[in-house]
Specification:
Elements (H helix, E strand, L loop, with lengths): L16 E4 L1 E2 L18 E2 L2 H24 L8 H9 L3 H11 L4 E5 L8 H14 L5 E6 L1 H6 L2 H10 L1 E9 L3 H6 L6 H13 L3 E8 L9 H13 L3 E6 L7 H7 L8 H13 L7 E3 L12 E2 L4 H12 L3 H13 L11 H28 L3
Parallel strand pairs: 1-4, 4-5, 5-6, 6-7, 7-8, 8-9
Antiparallel strand pairs: 2-3, 9-10
């Protein structure tokens, strides 16, 4: 028994059940993104989607029967989880892990599920909750341009049917940056979409890419992004750090000298300017991706704003050799936080690697390591 799966989901949906509603991305033109490059967008039919949900229900029933046979009353514990993993079937393993972690959260794939007709998406949501009654949160990616075209009534219907959260790739609030990366959205479209989601009572998660403006827009990118976030007040602001990867338009632009990538230090200065410019909002700021150099920059606005600025100041005030040590150690997976540098063994290993790389090879090594994190 199996069901179709797409390639990605947000880190925050690591334990969510994945259900594929559409294949790939209907836009697929963003200069920084290689996820769907060369792939064709298509819509899955209601029959296909419902069949997958039925398959998931059958897998759930099979796992619970195994639990009952072992006297566990239908509960999924570590033993049942190991049994499911031993089958070597990814779909069964995912469903078992989903049940083990509560069986409550579902993420709808791929890049823009809201491109479906609202009536069809409502039907999917209702069918999903009927077949899997333990589901309490359903989330999805969506493009701002798609959300902006939905009426307030349509979004209210989706909320009523069970759509709990929408993840939107804002990337930047600067119209110049958005045009440069071919986002297919603008400040006004992002604002309209974000406010519509909030008004519908759906949780809103906005993604921002640190460093996306390069040196060309190092001031405009953070300042305009902060202005847009202040206008929307999303439930979550999620930081991602740019990694320029081969096969993207941005990689070509960099090679042509049209884009100049920021250094680690410059990105933190940009991040600090952005966070310092957030005013009058109550968002949760999250750095839930290993590409972010300072994963500790997390908190609830406005109360934690100074705490987050303090973390960035602590990094920027370190000697250059210490900043280089932390950057390489973080990208290498040796450090998770600034305090990890206090571990003499790890610090020594990173110092030795730093000396071996040399100053001229450090940026190249860090860029290579960042590319592997995507």
């Amino acid at each position: 028994m199996s069901f179709e799966l797409g390639p990605i989901r947000p880190p925050s949906e690591a334990n969510s059940l994945l259900i594929r509603l559409t294949r790939n991305c209907p836009w697929n033109k963003c200069a920084f993104c290689a996820t769907y490059r060369g792939e064709t967008f298509s819509r899955r039919s209601l029959v296909e989607i419902k069949k997958d949900i039925d398959s998931i229900k059958e897998i759930c029933d099979g796992i619970k029967r195994a639990s009952l046979e072992r006297g566990l009353g239908g509960a999924v514990d570590a033993e049942i989880l190991r049994l499911a993993y031993s089958h070597g079937d990814y779909c069964t393993s995912m469903v078992a892990n989903w049940l083990y972690t509560g069986g409550e959260n579902v993420f709808l794939q791929d890049a823009n599920s809201l491109v479906m007709k609202t009536t069809d998406l409502v039907e999917v949501l209702l069918y999903l909750k009927e077949k899997l009654p333990s589901v309490s949160r359903i989330t999805s990616y969506a493009r701002s341009s798609t959300v902006a075209r939905k009426s307030a009534g349509e979004l209210a219907q989706l909320a009523q049917a069970g759509l709990s959260r929408i993840h939107i790739g804002m990337e930047s609030g600067s119209d110049k940056v958005l045009a440069f990366i071919n986002k297919g959205a603008s400040f006004d479209i992002h604002r309209e979409a974000g406010l519509k989601v909030k008004a519908a009572g759906i949780s809103l998660s906005e993604y921002v890419i640190l460093g996306l403006g390069g040196r060309e827009f190092a001031q405009e990118h953070p300042l305009e992004t902060a202005r847009l976030l202040n206008a929307i007040n999303p439930d979550f602001i999620r930081f991602r750090t740019l990694a320029v990867v081969r096969g993207t338009q941005l990689y070509e632009k960099r090679a042509e000298g049209l884009f100049h990538e920021l250094s680690e230090d410059e990105i933190i200065r940009e991040e600090r300017l952005l966070v310092a410019s957030l005013e009058g909002i109550t968002s949760n700021l999250v750095s839930d991706h290993d590409l972010n150099l300072l994963g500790e920059v997390m908190g609830k606005l406005p109360g934690d704003q100074q705490y987050m600025l303090g973390i960035m100041d602590r990094y920027l005030e370190m000697p250059a050799t210490e900043r280089a040590n932390f950057s390489l150690g973080r990208r290498w997976g040796m450090y998770r936080s600034l305090d990890d540098m206090k571990d003499a063994v790890r610090y020594g290993k990173v110092k030795a690697a730093l000396l071996a790389a040399g100053r001229t090879g450090l940026e190249g090594r860090i860029s290579q390591l960042k590319g592997r994190m995507l």
